[in-house]
Amino acid sequence: MSTRIVSIFVLLILAIACTRVEQVDWEDGTWIDLTYEYSDETIYWPTSDTFQLDTVFVGEAEGGYYYEAYAFASAEHGGTHLDAPIHFYEGGESVEQIEIDQLTGYAVVIDVSEPVADNRDYQIQTSDITSWEEEYGPIPDGSIVLFKTGMGAYWPDAEAYLGTANRGEDALAELSFPGIHPDAAQWIVENRDIKAVGLDTPSLDYGQSERYEAHQVLFEHNIAGFENVANLDQLPTTGAYVIALPMKIKEGSGAPLRIVALVHE
Amino acid sequence: MSTRIVSIFVLLILAIACTRVEQVDWEDGTWIDLTYEYSDETIYWPTSDTFQLDTVFVGEAEGGYYYEAYAFASAEHGGTHLDAPIHFYEGGESVEQIEIDQLTGYAVVIDVSEPVADNRDYQIQTSDITSWEEEYGPIPDGSIVLFKTGMGAYWPDAEAYLGTANRGEDALAELSFPGIHPDAAQWIVENRDIKAVGLDTPSLDYGQSERYEAHQVLFEHNIAGFENVANLDQLPTTGAYVIALPMKIKEGSGAPLRIVALVHE
Fold it and tell me: Which residue of B has its CA nearest to A248?
């Protein structure tokens, strides 16, 4: 073949092949929903308002057509939800100020279910992160880090998931679930450039935290939090693309979050 | 060059080029937020509960750290929101039953702002769709069709956007905005295989509709609706990828929707 024919051939193959890849990138993957439903069963912090759905109308309307509508109420921080930096950091971003780019990125899934199985009050250590990196390489810039503690298996059993099914101030002493140790949060902000952190527990800090310092450290560096994330066991360790879109509450400190991941084979 | 070398060359170029495309596809585009904020200004149907944000706590907590939290309430169908098929079709899908795949897809933007500029009670005609197709080709299977009526320019001025700033049953007679003619909805479900329909008005049907037949036709065919969609003027006619994630309300007939689009140059 002449060089000219070879060139045309290469360009043609490239055009066909790359067009195909661009098209299948979105449409060929599988969406995994990492979100719990809002219902009477949704788990909230013991001192928070819970989810309430009120019927506006259900049935045949006067005009002769079927019609259903509801109204709802909720605390910001229940179910699968976003923590905006302002939740624990004065002057931090509120919900509507967080750019979509900050809420979307490739996921890094760090499995800490082994130490949590031994101790449900476990605090995720810097060594959990560095051990992961020894196997998979440094957490890439722009990642969304998801800690899989295994607590998601207990949802929606509040006693098993939170450590208590009681409600009110007194129940706070009974909270028992794992979270991120403030030193590990500090290591992340000093050493890695990530967009957000999520986990399958109700809080970035562990249940017995009194000052919520992991929250403070991350939020001071404008890293948003995703809490009560569902179905983390369905994600690969790397390669899933996460899209986490909160209800756009102006000046909100948090919001219901619909978080999904696109996974390719 | 021998055929063998040509083959290796082609494969190498392919590998490099296609890997690059897969990697940049997500991260190189620009996210456009097609969502209005929820606040006191958010426009609701005249008979609906509006958005309410209640302060739980703002300031220095007992533990010596900064803390902010709120609770909120809303009707399902206000602001930028999803209409689930069950809203107007008995037995249709409720919010949590709609697959993510149904809420994500390439957008087709059909501009009907010209006839709307002449008549704000305009009903989008089948000919508006077929004219678009004459220029851009048939609406591809799996598209999300977004009608740009131009009404978004009036948000958040309720009188300009809805036709009335009054509230309550009596205000319904004053509603004046465009929507989809039931015949055009019928043409869509009979001739095209789309995932969802959205527009920059408060309702799929026009303001003076009494039976909401465009809703009925689309919902009977399990095509979800996106209403009060923002920033449609920032989308190209084709090529934007839309991701529309509603708050996951179990058995909801609708929900606050965070709808975004990824646009490549």
Answer: B37
